[in-house]
Amino acid sequence: MYGELLMGTLVALAAPQEPQETREEVYEIRIPAIEIEIPEIEIPEYVVVLRTSGPGVEFQYQGTEFFLPYMDISIPSFTIEIPQGEYAYGHAAAHERSFQDVEMDTTFAVERGARLELRNHAGEIVVRHWDRDQIRLEAVYSSDDRIKVFHTPTAVRVKSEARYGHPDAVDYELTIPAWMEVDLWGFYTDILVDGIQNNVRVETLEGDIEVRNVRGESSLQSVEGDVSLQRSSGRFQIHSTDGEVTVIGFEGEAYAESIDGDIRLEDIRSASVEAKTVDGDVFYEGTIADNGRYKLSTHDGDVMISLRGNVNATVSVATFEGEFEADFPVQLEPGTQASRKFSFVIGNGSARLELHTFDGDIQLLRR
């Protein structure tokens, strides 16, 4: 007698012997999704053979798993082949139809002191002003999208939503009260703001920004696009990572920055200006106020400044690989000499003017 125990167990994966605990999971699926219908697959049955010299074997069975102490079980492998077939979108009809452009034009009252917040995935945003306590909202968008407006006493929020995935491009044109504060944001969006007499915040990932006739404390930022500010006043911060910055006809405090682009400041009346870029030229034309602070710098580019009227400033110049040129005589401060870094005084020297470049020329002109 060999003392071998042969136990044959037929395992059917689809039919567990004991009740199973079920768990329901809910998944959020971004449409368009692909629904693939696969014919039923028959998984082959297999036998588990256990060999032991003991009088008997104790084992536990739970669902489709065996737990046997001190034993190794080897289950033959098998291959599942998915039959070939034609698989199509479950929403094929929805994707085959052509979407139509829809026009929206609505006007509603707004409480004084409320702010406008608008988010746009792609397209254009134009904001203009009028003398009514109302907002006129015009939009052109895809028939498969929806425009949502959330109106509270403190804010009006506008955004587009798609039935499936991201919304298509939307072109907005809004006419709002001039007193209204504005907060605009877009992914691939060009933005224009004109005539707002309050704070303006504009950000876009890829697109140009143009702001005109605005008064307030404002921030304009584009990652890939040009930024332009015209005939405005207040306190402005302007950023462009890959684009040019242009400021014309400005009064107030200005900070302008670009990584890869020129900065051009014209007709400026300010006591505090800072403009810096890494790869580009910097140009400044405007007044130098007594006791003002001005800093113009670039790493790879030229710096040119055109002075207006009477100027009282201490000028610091620094260039590593470039030349300095002035169209009027300058007298260096005692103990300094014209080299890579030096300074000189114009008038009583009350203002501070710093002109720096690493690889470029510095030019100082007087009108």
From TrEMBL:
Protein name: DUF4097 domain-containing protein
Pfam family, one: DUF4097
Domain DUF4097: from-to ranges: 116-364
Recorded superkingdom: Bacteria
